[in-house]
C-alpha cells in the first residue's frame, strides 16, 4: 500500500556558528522535528534538509529575516550574514520554496512573545520557550538537557514554522 508522507513547514533560525531548525506538519500543526546545530557546515544543513524531505515532504521553509544590530561588530555581522546567505543558497539549490520572516511577524503568534519596554535581551529571547510550553506542552525540548541558548534557537525555529502553519503560508 502506498504511504502518503505528511507535508511540513520548516523554520530556520540562522546564526554564524549556531542554527536552530524546527518543523511542524502542514495540516495539523503538530511539532515533528527540532535540532540545534553548532559550528554547522553547509553539508550538514543539506543533509538535514534532505532527510527531512525524505521522512516528510517540505512544503515551505521559513528563514528568519535578519539584519544588522546597533553595536554589533563588523566581523560578527559579516559572519552572521554569510551564514544566512549559505542557508538561503542551500535552500535555493535544493529547490525548496522559502520565505523570509521577520521576528516582528512571527512574534505575533502569541501575546507571550510580545516584547515589553525595558525588557532585557535574555528575557526577550526566553519567551519563545514559554510559547513552546503553552503550544506544545509535551515537547521534549522543554526538558532536554541542553544549554539555554540552544533551546532558545530551536524554540525560535519552531515558532517560525508554527507561524507559517497558523498563517497558511
In short:
The protein is an alpha/beta fold and 169 residues long.
What would your notes on this structure say?
By secondary structure, this protein is of the alpha/beta class. It has a single domain (7-166), classed as Nucleotidyltransferase, domain 5, CATH 3.30.420. The chain is 43% helix and 21% strand. The protein has helices at residues 42-55, 74-93, 103-106, 121-135, 148-166; strands at 7-13, 18-25, 31-38, 57-64, 98-101. A 5-stranded mixed sheet has the order 3-2-1-4-5, sandwiched between helices. Helix 1 runs parallel beside helix 2 (74-93) and helix 4 packs across helix 5 (148-166). The chain starts with 6 loop residues before the first strand and ends with a helix. The model has no long low-confidence stretch (mean pLDDT 89).
Topology:
Elements: E1 7-13, E2 18-25, E3 31-38, H1 42-55, E4 57-64, H2 74-93, E5 98-101, H3 103-106, H4 121-135, H5 148-166
Parallel strand pairs: 1-4, 4-5
Antiparallel strand pairs: 1-2, 2-3
Give the termini distance in whole angstroms: 31 Å
The residue-averaged pLDDT reads 89
Percent of residues in helices comes to 40-55%
**Strand tally, please?**
5
The second-level CATH architecture is 2-Layer Sandwich
H/E element sequence: EEEHEHEHHH
Amino acid at each position: 500500500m502506498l504511504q502518503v508522507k505528511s507535508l511540513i513547514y520548516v523554520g530556520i533560525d540562522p546564526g554564524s556558528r549556531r542554527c536552530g531548525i524546527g518543523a511542524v506538519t502542514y495540516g495539523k500543526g503538530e511539532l515533528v522535528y527540532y535540532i540545534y546545530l553548532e559550528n554547522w557546515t553547509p553539508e550538514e544543513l543539506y543533509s538535514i534538509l534532505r532527510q527531512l524531505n525524505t521522512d516528510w515532504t517540505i512544503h515551505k521553509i521559513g528563514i528568519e529575516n535578519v539584519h544588522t544590530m546597533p553595536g554589533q561588530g563588523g566581523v560578527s555581522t559579516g559572519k552572521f550574514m554569510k551564514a544566512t546567505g549559505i542557508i538561503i543558497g542551500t535552500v535555493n539549490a535544493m529547490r525548496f520554496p522559502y520565505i523570509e520572516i521577520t521576528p516582528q511577524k512571527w512574534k505575533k503568534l502569541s501575546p507571550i512573545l510580545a516584547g515589553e519596554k525595558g525588557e532585557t535581551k535574555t528575557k526577550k529571547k526566553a519567551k519563545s520557550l514559554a510559547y513552546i510550553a503553552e503550544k506544545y506542552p509535551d515537547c521534549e525540548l522543554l526538558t532536554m538537557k541542553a544549554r539555554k541558548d540552544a533551546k532558545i534557537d530551536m524554540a525560535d525555529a519552531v515558532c517560525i514554522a508554527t507561524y507559517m502553519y497558523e498563517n497558511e503560508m
